[in-house]
Amino acid sequence: MGAVSEVFQEMLLSPRMWRRAVVSLGLLLLVAAVLFNLYLLFLFSAPQKSAPAEEFTVPRGAAVSEVVQLLQRKGIIRSPWAFRVALGKRKIRAGGYYLSRAMNAWEVAAALSGDPFFLWVAVPEGLRKEEIAA
């Protein structure tokens, strides 16, 4: 039994064995990093290759979490987390937007933080049209 443990100890201490272990660990980490990046790419990618643009309305006063739920329910984004990362510190503006399922998370975030094609305007009661136009 002692001879086996001596051979095993010699193998563990040999530079060749350590080199193999380091190379194997490096390859394993490289494969893990590639797989993780592919997963992130999938999360941020568009749900469909091509799709027509549809009207999407961000309700006035809606929280970001509500908008994210609406986007996911309509199939415009794959991952709420990926969309929040893409949105960053930008604010979502209430109004109407043309969004497509062929847009990735970055494009959807840019669209929703940009200018909507329609928005709500509150006009105080009693103003004349000249006062509103000014």
Task: Characterise the protein shown here.
It is a single chain. With 134 residues, this protein is mainly alpha-helical. The chain folds into two domains: 2-44; 47-134, Endolytic murein transglycosylase (Dna Ligase, domain 1). It has six helices and two strands. It has helices at 2-13, 15-44, 64-73, 80-87, 105-112, 129-133; strands spanning 54-58, 95-99. The protein has a two-stranded antiparallel sheet. The longest helix has 30 residues, at 15-44. The protein is rod-shaped and about 100 Å long. The model has no long low-confidence stretch (mean pLDDT 88).
Structural key phrases:
54% helix, mainly alpha, single chain, 7% strand, two-stranded antiparallel ribbon, 134 residues, Dna Ligase, domain 1
Note the overall shape: rod-shaped
Radius of gyration: 27 Å
Which fold name fills CATH's third level, the topology of the largest domain?
Dna Ligase, domain 1
Strand proportion, as a percent range, falls in 5-15%
What is the terminal separation in angstroms? 97 Å
Please bin the fraction of helical residues: 40-55%
Structural class: mainly alpha
* Main sheet specs: 2 strands, antiparallel
DSSP, total strands: 2
Average of pLDDT = 88
Give the helices and strands, then pairings:
Elements: H1 2-13, H2 15-44, E1 54-58, H3 64-73, H4 80-87, E2 95-99, H5 105-112, H6 129-133
Antiparallel strand pairs: 1-2
Helix pairs in contact: 4-5
